[in-house]
Amino acid sequence: WADGWTAVPLAAGYVQFGATENACMVRRLGHLCEMRGLVRPGSGTFAAGTSIAVASLPAAFRPTGGRMFLVGVDSATQGARLALTSGGGVSVIPFVATARVSLSAVWTVG
User: How far out from the chain centre does Cα 54 lie?
Assistant: First the structure.
């Protein structure tokens, strides 16, 4: 009942953090979509409080409306907001300056 993992294209200037198990991937499980991965800027860090477009969801995995999630960052006591749009936009707003942000989330489609 599970589709295989599909790569999520990262925006220019952003790369996966670390090893291949951290690659930004998404899969569909019936009416649920699951995304995983860690992303970082190609150089420098994410600025705190700034909305940053980091990826684009393939059409089959896009939510019917906007979705927001709390996700992890480098800091054990802080996080970031992960936002998904029906147009496929994937953006993050870190609460603190950070080197990497998790893209792990689960949402419904169709």
Answer: 7
Per-residue burial over 55-66, b if 16 or more Cβ lie within 10 Å, else e, is bbbeeebbbeee
pLDDT tens digits for 34-87? 999 999 999 999 999 999 999 999 999 999 999 999 999 987 778 999 999 999
The arrangement of strands across the sheet holding 32-36 comes to: 6-7, 25-29, 32-36, 105-108
Task: Report the pLDDT value the prediction gives residue 28, as an integer from 0 to 100.
Answer: 92
Closest CA to 101 of 21, 14, 25: 14
Q: Which amino acid is at 18?
A: G
Q: What is the Cα Rg of the chain in Å?
A: 13
Structure tokens at 70: 């709390």
* Burial status of residue 53 (CB atoms within 10 A of its CB: 0-12, 13-18, 19 or more): middle
